From TrEMBL:
Gene Ontology process terms (BP): Golgi to plasma membrane transport; intracellular protein transport; vesicle tethering involved in exocytosis
Pfam families from the UniProt entry: EXOC6_Sec15_N, Sec15_C
One Gene Ontology term, aspect cellular component: exocyst
Protein name: Exocyst complex component
Keyword Transport: yes
Keyword tags: Exocytosis, Transport
Record has Methyltransferase as a keyword: no
Boundaries of every Exocyst complex subunit EXOC6/Sec15 C-terminal domain copy: 413-761
Entries under InterPro entries matching the protein: EXOC6/Sec15, EXOC6/Sec15_C, EXOC6/Sec15_C_dom1, EXOC6_Sec15_N, EXOC6PINT-1/Sec15/Tip20_C_dom2
Family: Belongs to the SEC15 family.
Domain spans labelled Exocyst complex component EXOC6/Sec15 N-terminal: 50-219
Function per UniProt: Component of the exocyst complex involved in the docking of exocytic vesicles with fusion sites on the plasma membrane.
């Protein structure tokens, strides 16, 4: 009972707790649940049972309610599905309506903003118009001031400044731009002075750039004036009966009139096209600047500045380009710039008062003239082309004539031309060095063949050759000289013409011109032509035949020197009998060349002999000779015969000397071959073979290959070899040793040392090759004789060395 009553007591408590749980907030459930565990120990189990029963009751109620409302829920879902389609359509329509509404609103907003902006602009414009009506006259006047300054109307600009300060600025003084203008006016006044100076600087820069054009125009005018004067002088000479010669032809009177008429027509045409310095340069900046500085009381500053700047420009103009000497255009540009500079100064001198004085221009010209002379002296030394030097001379003449026309002294320039004349002659000599070299290279060094009278006259017209015997010979025939002779003669005359060109327009006398031509021609002959001949003679490819022809050529060139002197006389009209007339030195020049050619003949002939001797191929151990002379020696003798036949055109002494020198050199070469230290042994058979070769040499010498030798003079060249070989061939040692040192000795030319060397070579052969085996068998005394002779020869050699 107790337990049941106790259980009944807890049930209402559990229901209360469940009600509190269902009715209270979730956050307050904790204390309620705690009370379940605080009552009785097993009360929570009962509570759980009560809780489960309550849950089941609620589930039953929910189920009943769901069963009751299920059909309505289904119907509601069905209706909701139907509404969803309409809702989507409505959403699309609402979205479209919103978009159109937004677009319309944007346009309205834009127009509204435009209206607001326009209202603001309208208000601002009204305000600006009101202010501009007050400020515009000031701005217009200030703009006018700027325009006047930009157009360099400085006096008008100053008046405008006065109007602004007195009338316009007080009206708008409250504005900042007015204060800026007021502050700027003093600076503008100062700028007027600076701008005028800037214009002057521009003017100076302009005339610096156009100096060459100004100078070119002035030099052309001077050249045209000179041409006209020369033509007029020619006509006057004809009228007064003066003969004028050009290339030895008198100018007819009618031709002079035509020349003068053409010159006058050219002068008229040139006058129509003549440009003055005012046409090429605007001098107004100088006038304006000078006037402004004069008004401002600062004229001295302007003059000093102008002169200082012009002196700087003068130094720049006088400074040449490093490559000026390479072309005539470089010199022309240099001269035209200088002429342009001084033409401008001359114009300033005559149109202004005090800016440039005569003393100033004279000082400037003297400074420039010294610099010009130094520059021309230096750069002309680099010129290697005579045509360029000649054009430079013509430019200097035109340059001097032009400046002389403006009142500048130019005598020092003409003095400089005499220095350049020497340089011109040097360049001519260098050029003709190449000309002569080409002539020598193209020459075939054979007599000129001619097959008819026309060819004969053609050669005679080029070179003064006279030979009655050659004229009588029938065609075809040959001139003794080669093609280079007439070509050289023509080129010497061309050199004289080229040297003569430099004297034109220098106003020198005929005597001075004649002296110049003769001196330059002497240099051509003694230095240039002589040097080319010597170089030609020493060239390796020049053979003996060519050397012979060179000697013949120099002989004819030497004979032609008198015609060159007559040629110069005809040009200058100065007789050769005049006391101070310079003679041509061609005779010594060609004689020296001939001597050099002769020496080269001797040298080359010996070299050719050496070449043949090097072909020698002796078998120094042979037992018996071949019975005939060696092939190389016969070829050498045939070569010498053919060469000495060519020598018949040479002077007798030259041919004889060459022949004697050749024989002596051949004899020396053969002797050297026998005594060669590398040759260790020689057999008697080899000596006999060598003797056959020497016999052929003696036969050649006795055949008189060159006429003029007396007796056996030429054979004496081989006497040393002959006596040496006879001594060994005859084995005549007793006679040699007995007569040694006697003037009448049979073997006088045999040196003991030479005999000893050869004998030892034969002695070595007897040991190695048993050459003397028969002697030892047949005659043992002969071996003893050899040893005895060797001892005696050594004694003689030792005696000679002690005596020496």
């Amino acid at each position: 009972m107790a337990e049941s009553s106790e259980g009944l007591g807890t049930v209402p408590e559990h229901e209360r707790i469940l009600q509190e749980i269902q009715s209270t907030d979730t956050a307050c459930v904790g204390p309620t649940l705690r009370s379940v565990y605080d009552d009785q120990p097993n009360a929570h189990k009962k509570f759980m049972e009560k809780l489960d029963a309550c849950i089941r009751n609620h589930d039953k109620e929910i189920e009943k309610m769901c069963n009751f409302h299920h059909q309505g829920f289904v119907d509601a879902i069905t209706e909701l599905l139907k509404v969803r389609t309409d809702a989507e359509k409505l959403k699309v329509q609402v979205t479209d309506t919103n978009r159109r509404f937004q677009d319309a609103g944007k346009e309205v907003i834009g127009h509204t903003e435009d209206i607001i902006r326009c209202r603001i602009q309208q208000r601002n414009i009204t305000t600006v118009v009101e202010k501009l009506q007050l400020c515009l006259p000031v701005l217009e006047m200030y703009s006018k001031l700027k325009e006047q300054m930009s157009t360099k109307r400085y006096y008008s600009a100053l008046k405008t400044m006065e109007q602004l300060e007195n009338v316009y600025f007080p009206r708008v003084s409250q504005y900042r731009f007015c204060q800026l203008m007021i502050e700027n006016l003093p600076k503008l006044r100062e700028d007027i002075k600076e701008i005028s100076m800037s214009d002057l600087k521009d003017f100076l820069e302009s005339i610096r750039k156009h100096s060459d054009k100004i100078g070119e125009t002035a030099m052309k005018q001077a050249q045209h004036q000179k041409t006209f004067s020369v033509s007029l002088q020619k006509q006057n000479d004809v009228k007064f009966g003066k003969n004028r010669y050009i290339n030895n032809y008198r100018i007819p009177e009618e031709k002079n009139e035509v020349v003068l008429k053409q010159a006058l027509e050219e002068e008229d045409e040139n006058e129509e096209e003549v440009l003055t310095v005012q046409d090429l340069v605007d001098f107004s900046p100088v006038y304006r600047c000078l006037h402004i500085y004069s008004v401002l009381g600062d004229e001295e500053t302007f003059e000093n500045y102008y002169r200082k700047q012009r002196k700087k420009q003068a130094r720049l103009v006088l400074q040449p380009q490093s490559s000026m000497h390479e072309t005539v255009d470089g010199y022309r540009r240099y001269f035209t710039q200088i002429v342009g500079f001084f033409v401008v100064e001359d114009h300033i001198l005559h149109v202004t008062q005090g800016l440039v004085t005569r003393a100033y221009t004279d000082e400037l010209w003297n400074m420039a003239l010294s610099k010009i002379i130094a520059v021309l002296r230096a750069h002309s030394s680099y010129c290697t082309d005579p045509d360029l030097v000649l054009e430079l001379k013509n430019l200097i003449v035109i340059f001097a004539d032009t400046l002389q026309g403006y009142g500048f002294p130019v005598n020092r320039l003409f003095d400089l031309l005499f220095e350049i004349r020497d340089q011109y002659n040097e360049t001519l000599l260098k050029k003709w060095t190449g000309v002569f070299r080409d002539i020598f290279e193209e020459d075939n060094y054979s007599p000129i063949p001619i097959v008819n009278e026309e060819e004969y006259k053609s050669v005679i017209s080029k070179f003064p050759f006279q030979d009655p015997d050659l004229e009588k010979q029938p065609f075809p025939k040959k001139f003794p000289m080669s093609q280079s002779v007439p070509h050289i003669y023509i080129q010497v005359k061309e050199f004289i013409y080229a040297s003569l060109k430099f004297s034109e327009s220098l106003h020198r006398s005929s005597t001075e011109i004649d002296d110049m031509l003769r001196k330059s021609t002497n240099l051509l002959l003694t230095r240039t032509l002589s040097g080319c001949l010597l170089n030609l003679i020493r060239k390796p490819h020049i053979g003996l035949t060519e050397l012979v022809q060179i000697i013949i050529n120099t002989t004819h060139l030497e004979q032609a020197c008198k015609y060159l002197e007559d040629f110069i006389t005809n040009i200058t009209n100065i007789s050769q009998e005049t006391v101070h007339t310079t003679r041509l030195y061609g005779l010594s020049t060609f004689k020296d060349a001939r001597h050099a050619a002769e020496g080269e003949i001797y040298t080359k002939l010996n070299q050719k002999i050496d070449e043949f001797v090097q072909l020698a191929d002796y078998d120094w151990t042979m037992s018996e000779p071949d019975g005939r002379a060696s092939g190389y020696l016969m070829d050498l003798i045939n070569f010498l015969r053919s060469i000495f036949q060519v020598f018949t055109h040479l002077p007798g002494k030259v041919a004889q000397t060459a022949c004697m020198s050749a024989c002596q050199h051949l004899s020396t070469s053969l002797m050297r071959m026998l005594l060669d230290s590398e040759l260790k042994q020689i057999s008697m058979g080899a000596v006999q073979q060598f003797n056959l070769d020497v016999i052929q040499c003696e036969l050649f010498a006795s055949s008189e290959p060159v006429p003029g030798f007396q007796g056996d003079t030429l054979q004496l060249a081989f006497i040393d070899l002959r006596q040496l070989l006879d001594l060994f061939m005859v084995w005549d040692w007793s006679t040699y040793l007995a007569d040694y040192g006697q003037p009448a000795s049979k073997y006088l030319r045999v040196n003991p040392n030479t005999a000893l060397i050869l004998l030892e070579k034969m002695k070595d052969t007897s040991k190695k090759n048993n050459i003397f085996a028969q002697f030892r068998k047949n005659d043992r005394d002969k071996q003893k004789l050899i040893e005895t002779v060797v001892k005696q020869l050594r004694s003689l050699v030792n005696g000679m060395s002690q005596h020496t």
